[in-house]
Amino acid sequence: MYLPDEAWPDLASYFESESLALVPLGSTEQHGPHLPEGTDHLIAEAFAREVADRTGFLCTPTVTIGVSDHHLQFPGTASADPSAFRDYVESITRSLTAHGIDRVIYVNAHGGNVTHLREVGRRLRNDEAAYAVEWMWDESIPDTVDEAFEHNGPHGGPKETALIQHLHPDLVHDDRLEEARDGGLAEVDDRIGRTHGSRTFYDSIDNSENGVFGDQTDASAEIGAELFAAASDELAALAEWLADQDFRDLMPKEHV
To answer: DSSP alpha helices (H): ranges in the chain?
Structure first.
């Protein structure tokens, strides 16, 4: 069920029987020379819509701009102030609680949003207004992702390339995959950007000239379809699990 497509009497029927909503969030930011700037929010929306169709749970419109100040050196990147982003997401969620939603899955596809969504979830839980959790597709199937690529990457790499090749092939510049690999940082490990144990970088360009990581030539639409199916299964299972929980069990424990 996609909220904007429904009339209010039908939504009222949903709220009478269900209390869970999927809220997709991403970013509008550079993803190298080969992928669209909407990569993250396109991925988040695809997962949320797929699982909403599969389970019948409610899916809201997508939050398309996130916290992306670490990509501002590249043309087109849009970024929300972190506190404004948190307040906006919290206000959206609280509007859902007015209709009876008390559990939310933030279907998130942008790493820069994670800590802020966790903070929003903590605020809502501490107020006992709702139980909201953040979900990222690649973290739900880490072994599958790692096995798919020799040189994976955290941003604009083969995993995101493969998903967009599957979901929106017309938006991928396949003729630039080698350029993306050769102009970025193909091999990534935990030592990148660290000096004597300190993270001595703030922006993606500090570690990658074109802002992307991994070997994009490893990607294919076929791999993207496999990753999409596997992660969709995980999100559907999470939604079903969360819907079955007693709300009181999700709230903060008593002080000891």
So the answer is: 8-17, 39-55, 82-97, 114-126, 137-140, 142-148, 158-167, 177-183, 221-244, 247-250
Cα 209 to Cα 68, 127, 133, 142, 185: the distances in Å are: 17, 44, 34, 26, 8
Q: Is the pTM of this model over 0.90?
A: yes
- Structure token digits, residue 181: 């690999």
Q: Which of 74, 89, 216 is nearest to 159 (CA)?
A: 216
Tokens of 218: 């490893």
In whole angstroms, give the CA distance from residue 16 to residue 202.
Answer: 46
- C-alpha 151/C-alpha 141 separation (Å) is 16
The answer to whether the CB of 212 falls within 8 A of the CB of 31 is yes
Strands 198-199 and 194-195: antiparallel
Q: How many helices (H) and strands (E) does the chain have?
A: 10, 6
- 23 DSSP β-pair partners: 106
pLDDT tens by residue, 152-209: 999 999 999 999 999 999 999 999 999 999 999 999 887 888 899 898 999 999 999 9
Percentage above 90 pLDDT, the chain: 94
Are the CB atoms for 32 and 179 separated by under 8 Å?
no
